[in-house]
Amino acid sequence: MTKRPANVSEGKSSESNDGKSSFFEILQKATTFEGNWDKDSFPEFPDVLFVVRQILGLFFGVMFGIFPVLGISAIIKFFVASMIMSFLYYARYVNVNIDDYGAGELATSGLQSSVGVFLLSWIGIYSAMHN
How far apart are CA 129 and CA 131, in angstroms? Predict the structure, then answer.
């Protein structure tokens, strides 16, 4: 008779013992087209949206630094693009239940820190390339 390791149990889901999903499970949920997630089936979604916004901030900061977009118009363009792309991600691509998470929470999740990432990358890339 073979012994089973203590951390392997029968009939359990792939969640760890503390009830949290693994990185790969969260990534799979975050990239599932029309997943129809709600707060019970995907409680980590606000965290995923936070990371998506940071990536958008970095992307737009690098692009605006390489192609010199200057002034308040760049900041306004970033806000508009970030809000539209985030909305398209959670309302159209992943198709989460907006009422379940709260429209305000989804609209602002990670927005402030993504502005910081955007400004840091935009100023750094622009200063390095155009001065």
Answer: 6
Q: Cβ contacts of residue 27 below 8 Å, gap of 6+?
A: none
Q: State the Cα–Cα distance between residues 58 and 37, nearest whole angstrom.
A: 27
pTM of structure: 0.76
The tens digit of pLDDT for each residue in 37-69 reads: 888 888 888 888 888 899 999 999 999 999 999
Q: Distance between CA 101 and CA 38 in Å, rounded?
A: 7
Query: Tokens 């958008």 sit at which residue?
Result: 56
Which of these, 53, 63, 46, lies nearest to 100 by C-alpha position? 46
Burial 104-116 (b: 16+ CB within 10 A, else e): eebeebbbeebbe
The one-letter amino acid code at 17 reads N
Burial class (CB in 10 A: 0-12, 13-18, 19+), 92: exposed
Q: Angle formed by the axes of helices 45-66 and 72-87, to 10°?
A: 140
In the chain, which residue ranges form alpha helices assigned H by DSSP? 23-30, 45-66, 72-87, 98-101, 103-108, 111-130
- C-alpha 22/C-alpha 100 separation (Å) is 23
